[in-house]
Amino acid sequence: MASNFETEDDGDDRGLLSDRIRNALTDEIATGTLAAGAALDEQQLADRFGASRTPVREALRQLAAGGLVELRARRGGVVARMTPERIMEMFETVAEIEAICVRLATYRMTPLERSHLIELHDLSQPIVETGDFDAYDSFNRQFHEAIYHATHNSFLAEQAIAVRNRLNAFRRTQLRQGERLRRSRDEHEAIMQAIAEGDGEMASRRMRAHMLNAATSLSRFIEINKPGGV
Amino acid sequence: MASNFETEDDGDDRGLLSDRIRNALTDEIATGTLAAGAALDEQQLADRFGASRTPVREALRQLAAGGLVELRARRGGVVARMTPERIMEMFETVAEIEAICVRLATYRMTPLERSHLIELHDLSQPIVETGDFDAYDSFNRQFHEAIYHATHNSFLAEQAIAVRNRLNAFRRTQLRQGERLRRSRDEHEAIMQAIAEGDGEMASRRMRAHMLNAATSLSRFIEINKPGGV
DNA sequence: TCGATCGCATTTGCATACACAATCGATCGA
DNA sequence: TCGATCGATTGTGTATGCAAATGCGATCGA
User: Which residues in chain A touch residue B76, judged by CB atoms under 8 angstroms apart?
Assistant: First the structure.
């Protein structure tokens, strides 16, 4: 077994075991290693992580609270099963929340926050040129989170991040279409324009459209490999 | 879909011990029996509920995921401490989400749902007359949840209920002002009017104002017994 | 007198053990 | 042959025990 010394040799060995298991499971669900509907046996997971059932249980409870897994009393847990309809509902919800955020942010952001957002947006130009999906995904996250922050409503920002992460776990390869990348940036550009003009309502509508475009892009992907299953 | 037949929410003796403890703690936090900032000792709670630490731990984890308690690693948990600023942020968030819901609901609700909502609203008239706060609170919940449901976006509805419940735990005696009761119903009336006219944007603005009025009403209450903490 | 360090007590985090509920298969009955 | 009921097995829910970590107090030093 792996020796658990206090010395952190490989990364984040230093934390609560239940948290590490939770993060690992989150990743595996997000990447699809754990397919939707897959049964989650506590003992089996415990063996796999070299731990006992206790931290596994706590991890599963946390994931259940986050909506990534479903726990039925005395019947074990399964990876949350997402129907296309449900995913579209989540996208719509995220789109509406993002629309709220950008509206509030437009009216409340400080000059410093605005310049930071502009800087961030400018940075995305070369990324689109190179077509680096992962880099754009990372930028995209920063861009949107900068907007959350600029609402000056930390609770709303937390909610936005939470629901976005929850969706992220099922979004995966959504941006893997070359065209979508450029269009995404164009839409950001339009949003930035509205922000610059101080038109929160306009920014809000454009953000909603931006998110729904991403949803449409994803929906094609869903149609393609319709799992139908388990 | 009502897939929640397993977990009976409250009152029932016959559920999972950890769920019962979670519900009990939720109530105690909501009613203020457990003051904000109060330390939550696992063994102590276990003794009080006549259980072992295991279900108590799971309950605490779930509450932490819901934001009602804060857990610091190896340092125990405390009841989440809400500053007035934070509560106002939560109210604003709820207001915006409610505004989303009523807009979508206006455009999507079925005739049956509309008549149900009207019926519900009419029922509130005698309640206001008698000034029964608890009855109005119950009605109010039904009214808003009917709107959530009418969005035909179950994910959004779940989010709305979750964030509303989270705020509920700190709202307590907010409606205990006779005037507020009648004004609340008047605001509902205005919202119903906008819905009847099919004007989702108008309904949305009125809903936002409605929620922010409730927040203002609460803020006075907060000012009065400003706890400052422990 | 004030600060720091060491040791103790309390409490969390994890492991292990046990009991009961749910599922699955087999046997019995029609 | 098909259905139902009953038992065995699997796995969750809970209890208990142990070890490490944190916080506090006392003692030592300046």
Answer: none
